[in-house]
Amino acid sequence: MASLQPVRGTHDLLPEQNRLQDYIANTAREIGELYGYHRMTTPIFEFTEVFARTLGDTSDVVTKEMYTFEDRGGEQITLRPEGTAGIARAYISNGMQQMSPVKVSYYGPMFRYERPQKGRQRQFHQIGAELLGVEQVAGDIEMIGYGAHILKALGLWDSITLELNTLGDPESRAAYRDVLVDYFKGHFDKLSEDSRSRLEKNPLRILDSKDEGDRELVANAPLFAEYLNEHSKEFFKALTEGLGDIGINYELNPRLVRGLDYYCHTCFEFTTNTLGAQGTVMAGGRYDGLISTMGGPQTAGVGWAAGVERLALMVGEAPAGARPVALIPMGDAAEAKCRTLAQTLREAGVAVELGYSGNMKKRMKRADKANACKAVILGDDELAKGVAQLRDLDSGEQQEVALDQLADVIGKK
């Protein structure tokens, strides 16, 4: 084969890109632990029913984007397109309701067959978090604060807007659904084919349609806020007041929706105008009906997810790591001693650059390329005296240090 390339929509994460994604994921993990959320990992593939039941049989993900196959045992298996369904399945199958409230975060690859574009691939990575077993609005406030904290820690907050909406409780949602169906039925001939198929099963998804004709109809559709009952209004009022308490501003977006019936109350997205059309950076909301939809006990839930590739585009590059110390041996005996020194220093927590060959000039060039902070120069004379020359590569200062004190001296510098 003349040219081997990765499959379309996938890409290799070379060391620098991988370091950037690890930086984002580790930042999210560390901040999550401040809020009591600990990382959990579910399998990369699940039985197809896990996603078909939770994402809805009219959603684009289920109808067009899932990587589904039959395994050798005849089971229908799907590579996970998102993280929440697997966490919900694990909650049920592991009896985690006994641990309520359950607070978990996750990080890993997801898979969707869609048109590759900026910040969006067929194999991509997400960070996310779920809070299960908390009905109170305090859970929503905490979850939004947690997401905002990550974006602040990554240095992105100044270019982020929190968009917020309420989907009301099931009673409010049912009332709005009926009004919405009546409205769109009156304009049925103008709806796109996708929206016509969603009209009976999933009418709220029409509000999120990208079709220009649909968007014109949506602009004049009734607003959810007009059909909220008192409980829903009070929940949303408490949410906005709570966000004020923790210093988070928001913009109301009445067209921000989630199409499936298990979503309720809080719906939010952190968006940016720095990524072109792909403006959503992190999205989440409350899903009190999800666990019961999957056959588990009635369990409140709220969560969010964020695409790591999009965050990486905004962050640009990871902070510089620890600068290494370069070992520069001159002669075979020094080469052997440097191997021992390298192991000792690394086990003491010092990053070490040790070349495999070359004279002193070549090794110093390699040290410069590796952005080394110091060079340990060792030749026959130094070996005889049990010392090394320690050179500061920024200032050029050099001192003689006993070999058995090298790790301590380097650690103090």
UniProtKB/TrEMBL annotation:
Protein's UniProt keywords contain Thylakoid: no
A biological process from GO: histidyl-tRNA aminoacylation
PROSITE patterns: AA_TRNA_LIGASE_II
Keywords, in A-Z order: Aminoacyl-tRNA synthetase, ATP-binding, Cytoplasm, Ligase, Nucleotide-binding, Protein biosynthesis
Subcellular location: Cytoplasm
Record's GO cellular component terms: cytoplasm
Keyword Repeat carried by entry: no
GO molecular function list: ATP binding; histidine-tRNA ligase activity
Family: Belongs to the class-II aminoacyl-tRNA synthetase family.
The name this protein goes by in its record: Histidine--tRNA ligase
Organism (species): Thalassospira tepidiphila MCCC 1A03514
